[in-house]
Design goal:
153 residues, mainly alpha, 45% helix, elongated
Length: 153
């Protein structure tokens, strides 16, 4: 009898199963990387747009902000929000009541405490459908003290 040196069907099936399992295990990693890339590209676009808008803001409406800050209005946040809204591409005339109970969390799932600088109650939709939150923090912001918080979701 002559002995054949070849793979039998069981060996071929084991190799095919191992290859299929490897591909299935790699698919989530490939999809997560493309999802992260889309998110990063979206944030870069949003940041560039916001940066450009606020360069225009610095030239145009800083005097209006200073007048609100120097006034005796107790809650300055809504008035300053009206001034800044166009630079965030927000149309305040649109209905924002459906965002009244909008909640957001930190990336780790923890709730944002009310005392935090990133806590805000004012949310609106941008023209592109993103949700923007805004909170005015301090009229005497210089150096390392932030003036406001803007959240994009």
């Amino acid at each position: 009898m002559k002995k054949l040196n070849a793979f039998n069907m069981v060996e071929i099936m084991i190799v095919v199963c191992l290859l299929v399992t490897t591909v299935i295990l790699c698919l989530p990693i490939i999809f997560n990387n493309s999802k992260e890339a889309r998110i990063i590209a979206g944030w870069k676009r949003l940041y560039t747009e916001a940066e450009t808008n606020f360069e225009v803001f610095n030239v145009g409406d800083m005097e209006r902000i200073q007048s609100v800050c120097s006034s005796n209005i107790e809650d300055k946040d809504p008035e300053i929000y009206k001034i800044i809204a166009p630079y965030l591409n927000i149309d305040l005339s649109k209905n924002t009541k459906n965002l009244k109970y909008y909640h957001y969390r930190f990336k780790n799932g923890a709730q944002v405490p009310m005392q935090s600088n990133v806590f805000t109650k004012r949310f609106a939709y941008q023209e592109n459908g993103n949700v923007v939150g805004f909170r005015w923090l301090n009229c005497k912001c210089k150096g390392d003290k932030p003036c406001a918080t803007a959240l994009f979701d």
